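Hypothesis: this fold can be encoded by more than one sequence.
Test: take the structure tokens below, design a sequence, compare later.
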């Protein structure tokens, strides 16, 4: 298969699109940053891409709720095009604000007859939190996490708490292997029992940091893999042997490898 083509969706207030383009580029993909209004004008543009990535940032100023306006725009103007893209066996990745968008559009398969299973809302402490976190990947299902187990990545969010509708919704996500990434100290077992701050930075249910759909091809995560594509981006790179390729880059490489 030729080099996969990645569309990084731009929108007013997105601010991680260039880093995300760089990460996919390092991973060997062909990448274009395309404004959401261009896609709305010409939804057939999507046919030329195998990966759609909604990057991090503050789309539409986080008005109403982070990711809500862009999600509503996608639902109102591109519902069929985006669903067709997803159902064509392609990949979708939402990073931080992009995760908020994917979850709020329902593209993550995060709804049942009772409505949405989960949403992303304000961190328990009510503040923006930007720092490195320790994570455990569940690589059973998620294409982007193949071969990845424990990983450190930075977070930078105010509305990163995964709030689950009820215990049935939580069971659907946990038992369905949908919680693809959890906050977990490197030296401790992974658990769904909510860990306290700072390990769980936002109060997310089941310590969840990322969710995937039932196919494993649609993935949203709050941490920023595009900010760890070189070992010198790690805060301890001068003191510790940091494995290469940098752990964040491996997510993007997995996306490219999916098509080879
Ligand atoms: N880095 C980001 O994408 C931030 C997402 C969103 N603006 C928030 O603060 O929660």
């Amino acid at each position: 298969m030729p080099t996969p083509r990645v569309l990084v969706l731009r929108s007013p207030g997105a601010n991680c699109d260039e880093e995300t383009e760089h990460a996919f580029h390092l991973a060997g993909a062909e990448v274009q940053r395309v404004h959401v209004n261009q896609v709305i004008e010409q939804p057939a543009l999507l046919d030329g891409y195998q990966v759609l990535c909604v990057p991090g940032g503050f789309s539409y100023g986080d008005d109403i709720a982070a990711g809500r306006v862009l999600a509503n725009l996608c639902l109102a103007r591109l519902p069929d095009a985006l669903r067709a893209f997803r159902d064509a066996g392609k990949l979708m990745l939402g990073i931080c604000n992009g995760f908020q968008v994917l979850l709020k559009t329902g593209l993550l398969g995060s709804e049942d007859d009772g409505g949405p299973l989960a949403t992303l809302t304000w961190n328990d402490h009510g503040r923006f939190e930007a720092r490195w976190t320790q994570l455990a990947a569940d690589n059973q299902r998620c294409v982007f996490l193949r071969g990845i187990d424990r990983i450190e990545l930075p977070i930078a969010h105010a509305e990163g708490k995964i709030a689950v509708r009820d215990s049935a919704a939580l069971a659907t996500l946990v038992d369905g292997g949908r919680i693809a990434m959890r906050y977990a100290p490197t030296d401790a077992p992974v658990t769904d029992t909510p860990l306290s701050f700072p390990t769980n930075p936002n109060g997310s249910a089941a310590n969840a940091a990322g969710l995937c759909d039932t196919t494993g091809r649609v993935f949203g995560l709050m941490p920023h893999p595009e900010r760890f594509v070189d070992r010198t981006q790690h805060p301890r790179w001068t003191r510790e042997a940091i494995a290469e390729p940098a752990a964040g880059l491996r997510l993007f490489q997995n996306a490219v490898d999916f098509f080879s």
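The two ends are 6 Å apart (CA to CA). The first strand starts at residue 5 and ends at 10.
Hypothesis status: open.
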